[in-house]
Design brief:
homodimer, 243 residues, Rossmann fold, Arc Repressor Mutant, subunit A, 2 domains, DNA-binding
Amino acid sequence: MSEPARSLANNDLTDRRVLVVDDDPTVSEVVSEYLRSAGFIVDRVSDGFAAIDAEARISPDLIVLDRMLPGIDGIEACRRIRSSSSTPIILLTALGSEDDRIRGLEAGADDYITKPFSPRELVLRVRSVLRRSLAELAPESALDRGPFRIDPAARVAMMNSVLLNLTVREFDLLAFLVKHPDQAFSREDLLSRVWGWTHGDLSTVTVHVRRLREKIEPDPTHPVLLTTVWGIGYRLDLKEHTK
Amino acid sequence: MSEPARSLANNDLTDRRVLVVDDDPTVSEVVSEYLRSAGFIVDRVSDGFAAIDAEARISPDLIVLDRMLPGIDGIEACRRIRSSSSTPIILLTALGSEDDRIRGLEAGADDYITKPFSPRELVLRVRSVLRRSLAELAPESALDRGPFRIDPAARVAMMNSVLLNLTVREFDLLAFLVKHPDQAFSREDLLSRVWGWTHGDLSTVTVHVRRLREKIEPDPTHPVLLTTVWGIGYRLDLKEHTK
DNA sequence: AGGAAGTCTTACGGATCACAAACGGCGTAT
DNA sequence: ATACGCCGTTTGTGATCCGTAAGACTTCCT
């Protein structure tokens, strides 16, 4: 109940412009209709070049891009759009292979939906991606909680009034945990919500947790703040349910 | 041995209401039985109008809807339900054509299963759709009952305000029992609803009950909280009969 | 009392998991 | 151009947990 509600309140998702790119009129029609009824303003084009052009012209808040297109394909269109803009992109595809998915994400796509998909799921994904991208733009205020003070704007983190010398990832990780204290997160969750990855090496999380511990724990070998929940993941303990 | 298992999700999928709509008594019976043994509460109706009525009346968490129905067909029922509610819908069908599928998804279905399907696949799909839809909702809150306090989000269990050091399985087992106190469950039930297995070695349950007793019973050899119901299974006694 | 079925207890091997340490790549600053 | 810092990955190690099996014990029934 903490985050999603607030970001929804601050950043309204209605009336956002979505650009739908698909050469199949049926799919394009269905997708557009559903997005419209979900409160989005929808523009449609049917090939890659038109997509690049339209993106530059109307600056949509998000693009739904079919992977298979006449002319340049979706992946290439995605790459070109991304090279000049950070507009979020959701890729549509008939293929479901892992390789395919990775190539899509590498090209800069923010999410990936395989056909056949339900329009409802599409709307959910669109909302989710939009929320994420809008949340990054919103100016956030500093947060004091427990011994921590997180200032996202200044990118400064303090603990007991002393400055923590954190790296980018460490800051993001700590900021997320301070925003969601006393809640256990799996490595997948953290990878997804802090790193923004949908898949990847989970040990990345493990190592960064260890590095963060070195900077915030009195005794890093016996964590009391950032504790591990065996078989689940990690939790930042601000409530004293321990001991 | 084990299933895809590891739901480790934030939201408990047990005790969710599923409405099964099918005019074929055999199919309806089989589907319902499998869903029940997977821990769902199942209601059944046999035609489209009854489905619309039942949906409004009992507000199920999910609907399994046959595509072929007397009166209005599944697609139409799906559309009507969707017009007034966002309850997730899984469509059952004998047909497998692409067109058919698209029309189903267009009507607002969240997933689509073609007959013949394995009951196991059905349960997996139901879980998957439910998990997606529940993920958008509020996280579950802590539960206080008797001497126990269960916080699923934090993955913390306390007894008389002291922290219990439980493993994953022990936590899941205790959480389930605290949610359903003073009710006897067979080992099969527990295996199905806590482990998510449809079959397996029942001694697994026995051993875990014993391990849990070691951590919550004053005298594990003479249980007073987690008692065994001879010939039936186990029960968590929270109503204070004696003492 | 005796047998059968159900339950409890203990033990063990495999599997999983968490952690530490180190490595190489990449970008940036010097 | 070089050095440094950060990041993601890999490897090895130790610890934990889980499921199963096997035997002892208890309860129920005849």
